[in-house]
Each structure stands twice: as C-alpha cells, then as structure tokens.
C-alpha cells in the first residue's frame, strides 16, 4: 500500500492494526487518549544517518548538522540531538531554556531569529555558541551587551549583561540572497528580495565593517531560501553569491558556512518518493567545494539544517472520529483535533494523507474530508482524500505529522494540547503530558 510509505520506518499492519515500533496504535490510543502524537526514534535515526553518510561521502572538510527546534522541541528531542552530536537551532529565550534544560552544551546551541529581543540576546550570549545575526540593529544590540559585560560600570541598572560568561561566541551574518526556491506556498519562501529575513549585500558589508571596528567575533555566513522544496538547483546561485561575499569579507583561518535547509518530504502519496537526501547534500557539497576552489577560499565548516526532512516522517497524529456527515458526494469525518494542534492546512494549504488505525487496507472509495471541532471553517486537515467507509468511534492516523504541528499549537476554543509519546524498541514513553483544563488557568492572573 503506497500510503503506508508515508508512515515511520518499520510501520506495519499486524492483526489488522497499524503498528509502529511493534506497538499497535490502538493500544496507545486507549491508554493515552486522543488527539495523540507519537514519534518513532528509529525513523529519526534513519533520516539522520542518511545526512551523515552523504556528508561523509561528498564533503571533504568538517561538517555539522543542525536540528531545527522550531519544527518541534521538548527536552526529550533535545536530549536525542545532544546524544547524536547535533547542533540545535533555537529561536529566542524559550527554546534556549528547553535546550539547556536537556543538557545541551553551549557549543551545540545556535540561535536564530528575525527580531531578537534584548532578553533573547542576553539568553543567547549566556547559553549559546553561535548567534546568527539577522540585521544591523541586532548586531549593535549585541555590541552594547558585550561592552557592558566587559565594563559593568557602563551597564544600566536593569541590565543583566554583567552576568554574561566571558567565553567565546561566534557571530554569523544572515545574507538575504534575493533568490527564493520553489515551494507550494509563498509563506514558505524566505530568500526573495522583499523577504523580512536577513541582510542585503550592502547591509552585510556594513555589518562586517561594524564587527571589525568593534572587535566582534564574526566567523560565518548563513542564508535560507525557503522550506519544503525538492530541487537543489536553485541553491547554486545563492551559494555562489554567498561565496563571493565570503571572499570579499576575507575570513581568516576557520570559518563557517550554512546554506540553510528546508529540504522537502512527501506529505501525500501523490508526492512520493521522498526527494533524495543524498542528492541534496551532494549538490550543496559540490557547489561549495568547487566555489571555494575557484575563489581560492579555504573550505568552511559546512552546516546543514535538515528541518522537516529529519523529523516530519517520524511523527504521526492519532485522532478519534466523533461524527460522520454526508454532504453530496463528500463525506466529512469530524475528529477530536484539528487546527489547534495542526494549523498548517489553514495557514498554507498543506496536503496530508490518512489511514484508519484498524483495518487500514480496506477499499479506498469514499471521497472524504477531515475537519476538527473548532468554530472555524478553516478547521480542516484533509480535503477530498479517498478513504474507506469510516464509522463514528474509529481512530485515524495522519502521517508526516512530526514537524510544525505541536510547535505552532494553540489553546483555541479552550483546546488542550495533546500528549506526545516517544516510541523505541517496543516501548512507549510519554515525553509531553496532555494539557488539562487546570493548565489553561495557570496563566490567568485573576483566577
């Protein structure tokens, strides 16, 4: 069954039930309730292995892989990243705190963000090894904080700069290449000329001068063109542009280069097979090696950000059908979760597929749409997917749910965010507890 290929590695049908890591999803749904998210470690390890093997085969200098905390971050995921030697990309103080709580050392922590607050920057300087600087204003804030740390008498009374450790921090500049990649929606593009992200070449030049005038530890360049793309070819002109900038900057000694990430993955059987990780890494590696050779540049430490292609397929969302409605030739399955735990379809028309948890190989002949319980017409996860006849009370499973679901989840209509399980070698461990109605009141200062 082609649809089964979207699920985590090793997903099988045993005794007529969808099974991951040799655990029937029926048993997990009964024990933990729904909506429920499960993450399969074997799939995470498999995807990471593909990246590591490709880098070892195609890039002849040091390289690193960065896990995107924005895709989904909790202490269990951060511990996995730490154990596998990954860097973790955090956006702001909240994600930094989670990563550090998991024991991630500062040298494995990298901080992004398009408008980092002073609190974000203080946290980054205290806890991270690298800050990717998005704009000139941010760069000047960093200079002020570091200056106050070196000279506490200059600090304002409410400043926390004096508590900064006097250890090395690396600064990379984020270049806006003016070139986007092809994605399915404009909201997943980041590299175009009018993007809110990064600095133009003129702004990069100004930032370099500022760093050198003030002794700031500049040693890297970064860019990002978009998310969930499948063709590495549009990366090449941006890599060429960035290497031109690197030659102009004249990095001395070791330097770091990150051509972003956002490599795609299939969300629907129409998109199979998954785009090749090996082809993506090979294309980047060859462009960097040849580009540096032709410019007389030392090969940089190459950093890749796999994003969703590392974790999306490892995650599955399980829901229970609460009502079935027939509207003409369309059947609606109304389930107990939706845009509050997965806003991607509402935000940018993301496509998904689905299987019933029990008897998943039934004939697919009913044109089905799947919607949630929330008071929004946009609360839809799937539109017009062929499914079997599904009855009230059945469980359904939506694959490729590991990235950008729970990290963007909300409490809309009083929704409580789902429990999350970690599946490994026939064992299921709860890594995030289901929110309760009492959790909703914790922030209510008038309660």
Helix content: 25-40%
Largest beta sheet, briefly? Answer: 9 strands, mixed
CATH homologous superfamily title of the largest domain? Alanine racemase
Second CATH tier, the architecture of the largest domain? Alpha-Beta Barrel
Number of domain modules: 2
Summed over residues and divided by their number, the pLDDT gives a mean of: 91
- Helix segment count? 12
Q: Kindly state the number of beta strands.
A: 20
Percentage of residues in strands = 15-25%
Radius of gyration: 23 Å
Low-confidence stretches: 181-191
* Shape label: globular
CATH structural class of the largest domain: Alpha Beta
Structural class of the helices, strands and pairings?
Answer: alpha/beta
The CATH topology of the largest domain? TIM Barrel
Distance between the termini: 52 Å
């Amino acid at each position: 069954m082609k649809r089964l290929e979207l699920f985590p590695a090793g997903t099988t049908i045993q005794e007529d039930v969808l099974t991951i890591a040799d655990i029937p999803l029926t048993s997990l749904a009964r024990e933990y309730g729904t909506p429920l998210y499960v993450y399969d470690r074997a799939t995470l390890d498999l995807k990471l292995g593909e990246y590591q093997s490709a880098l070892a085969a195609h890039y002849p200098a040091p390289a690193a892989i960065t896990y995107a905390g924005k895709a989904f971050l909790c202490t269990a995921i951060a511990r996995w990243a730490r154990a596998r030697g990954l860097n973790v990309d955090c956006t702001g103080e909240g994600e930094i705190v989670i990563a550090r709580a998991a024991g991630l050392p500062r040298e494995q922590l990298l901080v992004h963000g398009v408008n980092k607050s002073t609190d974000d920057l203080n946290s980054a300087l205290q806890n991270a090894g690298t800050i990717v600087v998005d704009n000139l204003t941010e760069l000047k804030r960093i200079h002020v904080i570091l200056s106050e740390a070196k000279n506490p008498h200059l600090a304002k009374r409410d400043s926390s700069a004096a508590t900064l450790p006097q250890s090395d921090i690396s600064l990379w500049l984020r270049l806006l290449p003016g070139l986007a990649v092809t994605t399915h929606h404009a909201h997943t593009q980041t590299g175009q000329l009018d993007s809110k992200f990064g600095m133009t070449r003129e702004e990069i030049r100004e930032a370099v001068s500022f760093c050198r005038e003030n002794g700031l530890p500049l040693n890297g360049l970064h860019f990002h063109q978009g998310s969930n793309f499948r063709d590495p070819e549009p990366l090449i002109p941006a890599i060429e542009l960035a290497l031109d900038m690197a030659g102009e900057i004249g990095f001395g000694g070791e330097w770091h280069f990150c051509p972003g990430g956002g490599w795609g993955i299939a969300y629907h059987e129409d998109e199979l097979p998954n785009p090749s990780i090996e082809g993506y890494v090979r294309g980047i590696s060859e462009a960097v090696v040849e580009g540096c050779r032709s410019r007389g540049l030392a090969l940089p430490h190459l950093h890749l950000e796999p994003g969703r292609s590392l974790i999306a397929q490892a995650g599955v969302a399980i829901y229970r059908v609460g009502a079935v409605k027939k509207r003409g030739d369309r059947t609606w399955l109304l389930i107990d979760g939706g845009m509050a735990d997965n806003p991607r379809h509402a935000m940018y028309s993301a496509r998904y597929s689905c299987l019933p948890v029990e008897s998943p190989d039934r004939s697919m002949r009913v044109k089905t749409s799947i919607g949630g319980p929330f008071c929004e017409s946009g609360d839809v996860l799937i539109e017009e997917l062929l499914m079997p006849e599904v009855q009230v009370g059945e469980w359904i499973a939506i694959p490729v749910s590991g990235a950008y679901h729970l990290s963007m989840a909300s409490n809309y209509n009083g929704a409580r965010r789902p429990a999350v399980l970690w599946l490994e070698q026939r064992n299921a461990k709860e890594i995030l507890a289901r929110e309760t109605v009492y959790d909703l009141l914790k922030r209510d200062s008038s309660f």
